[in-house]
Amino acid sequence: MAGEICRRLHQSEVVGEILVGMLLGPHLLGAISESLSLNVFAEIGVIFLLFTVGLETRATEMLRVGGTATAVAVLGVLLPFGLGLALMLGLGEKTTTALFVATALVATSVGITARVLTELGRAASRPARIILGAAVIDDILGLIVLAVISGLAEGKFSFLKIGLVVAEALAFTVFVIVVGQRAAHRISAHLNRLRIANPAFVVSVALCLGLSALAEHIGLAGIVGAFLAGMAFAETREAANIRRSMEEVSALLVPIFFVVMGAKVDLPGLLRPEILLLGLAVTALAILGKVAGCGLAAFKLGKREALSVGIGMMPRGEVGIVVAAIGLSRGIISNDIYAVVIFMSLITTLITPALLKRAMARSPRA
Amino acid sequence: MAGEICRRLHQSEVVGEILVGMLLGPHLLGAISESLSLNVFAEIGVIFLLFTVGLETRATEMLRVGGTATAVAVLGVLLPFGLGLALMLGLGEKTTTALFVATALVATSVGITARVLTELGRAASRPARIILGAAVIDDILGLIVLAVISGLAEGKFSFLKIGLVVAEALAFTVFVIVVGQRAAHRISAHLNRLRIANPAFVVSVALCLGLSALAEHIGLAGIVGAFLAGMAFAETREAANIRRSMEEVSALLVPIFFVVMGAKVDLPGLLRPEILLLGLAVTALAILGKVAGCGLAAFKLGKREALSVGIGMMPRGEVGIVVAAIGLSRGIISNDIYAVVIFMSLITTLITPALLKRAMARSPRA
CA-CA to A258 of 20 to 30 Å: which in B97, B259, B274, B349? Predict the structure, then answer.
């Protein structure tokens, strides 16, 4: 019902799911409490969400939008990360806490952006292609940063350790992309010899869960493995089939993730002046970081298109919330700071559609 | 992998899933243990399994095969129930235990039978239509018996209590069939006005879970509500769409149910001579009850077709296992007797395809 209401208000269903979680959660109505089984459903939900995002990420398409998109992605990662880190360290937070908040500011939500561009009927325009390419690249960068940060959070802080974790995260990513993609192509070619029902779905989901477990096992986040598993299958001939099959499974499990994430938000706590102020400051930096960083990188396209690109990169969604949730579960960030990150995700998601519509209306059609 | 192996050995995938559960379970390898989250997944899995079975159950089709199918179903319920009850009481078991075992012998597995008939290319023949009609009717009878038995198991044994539980179960069933079907038709007609993705799937799954919770709330088994919810949508114009959407969700969750059910089987315990003997006796009565009961009811079709019908009604599957699992979780039946019921389900499922193939080959084509 919340999803339907949001759709009618021209908002993403995700917004409704988080708000329902806040409402039903232990901090307000108390209808849902911290329960193991809900958390397990939520965890499987986010694994499948990232698997689906991976399935939509074609390596060759990313290479095609190439230069500009990469520049937009890199500057759009560096600036929000730097601004977030500076703010949190300036406020006297611990380094690990500051790093987690900064990481949560990094990744644009491909899902939300793609949905808005499709609704505007502009998904094929030049800024749209750059936005989608850059959003995919910064998702990968965000996951690598998350891998590094969560590796660091486990042990002591040293340059050797940083180097090792970066190397491990990069090695895993490159290995799965290179070997995984070949393996996925070879597997896809032989799937029709299996006699079980819907073999492409069964085999790819098994590999997704296997790679997630492997990623957790070597100290990375499970979602990194799920995303890479999806990416490995993105360009196989079974990709469309797997995507279609995942739709219903996602429709069932993904909302549980966002409801559970919403339930963790202490809304009365968020409404205390000092926390609300921090939330507004973080949100302002999140917006400034993307609009300035991405806009700068896309400046050669002209002022209007550069602004469209910057605004299109604003919404943060699943990856940022996942980062915050991991930080919360490990005791690295507090309930207050978790609420601040969710606040930032909600606001950037809520204001993007209207702003993007106005900016795109002024930029030339493709 | 187990599913694939079973398919190549011309067995149902369900057999492979139960055997994998036995192998990985705490009584053998110990790779999976009693965990809350696995049980929750299994419970949701069986809810969706019965919802899917319900979606394939058309009230009008049942009325069309009418007389013979009803006679086959009723005699095929009464004889195994009576034989099972007599055996268990004769062996000195408690009345509630004997009632649970007898109930587990009642319901033919529509899923397994339908799959075998389709594989034989004879799904449209006269015996096939009677088998499918009767299997559906005995599923409903089985669920009503289960509702009555589990209601009885909660309190003291009295004729007033039996009457109340029967009345409650019948009232719930009739109410959902009559009101639910009208409501489902009306809802289906308006689903295209919703703006969320795949509204038919979202709304029907929500109603399925809601009716399951309601059934549990008034003391019936949750699966009764799920089955009736499916049946309510079976003849709406969205039925095919919902069935297709449920396929992937079922592919993911239903195997977990059968693996968890398998894991509860104490295989070393089952192999003790006295338990194995009981298992063989129960299996023999399960086979005799259906072949004699259903064959007798279908005798006017001629000896060969009557035999085909009797054999086609033999396999017990999900409903029998669910009955046993409910009995086990409430402490009404022991681990040994649970293993006996699973043994009976496996054997009747394993031997049906080959026997049915031979019987059908001799009976005239439709």
Answer: B259
The answer to whether the complex's ipTM is over 0.90 is no
Instruction: Answer yes or no: do A41 and B36 touch at CB < 8 A.
Output: no
Contacts of A252 in chain B (CB under 8 A): 205, 249
Q: Which residues contact B154 (CB under 8 A, 6 or more apart)?
A: B219
Q: What part of B 272-311 touches A (C-beta under 8 Å)?
A: none
Q: What are phi and psi of B93, to 5 degrees?
A: -75, 160
Residues near B243 by Cβ (< 8 Å), separated by ≥ 6? B52, B55, B56
B150 token code pair: 């589990």
Sign of the four-CA dihedral B222, B224, B225, B227: positive
Residues 6+ apart with CB under 8 A from B256: B38, B41, B42, B45
Contact A16, B195 (CB under 8 A): no
Q: Which amino acid is at A267?
A: L
Spell out the domains of chain B, with CATH numbers in brackets: 41-254+271-362 (1.20.1530.20)
What are the tens digits of pLDDT across the range B86-121?
A: 999 999 988 889 999 999 999 887 666 766 676 667
Nearest CA among B141, B111, B118 for reference residue B294: B141
- When scoring B40, B248, B258 by the number of chain A Cβ atoms within 10 A, the one with the most, hence best to mutate, is B248
**Is the separation of the CB atoms in A197 and A245 below 8 Å?**
no
CA distance B122 to B131: 11
Give the pLDDT confidence score for residue B262 in this predicted structure. Answer: 83
Let me know: does B195 contact B19? Beta carbons within 8 Å.
no
Please give the span between the terminal C-alpha atoms of chain B, in angstroms, as a whole number. Answer: 37
Q: Does A156 touch chain B (CB under 8 A)?
A: no
pTM of the model: 0.78
Tokens of A98: 């500051």
Report CA dihedral (B135, B226, B3, B315) to the nearest 10 degrees. -20
- Report pLDDT digits (tens) over A114-160: 666 766 677 667 787 788 778 777 877 887 787 777 777 666 556 77
Report helix, strand and coil shares of chain B as percent, to nearest 5. Answer: 80, 0, 20
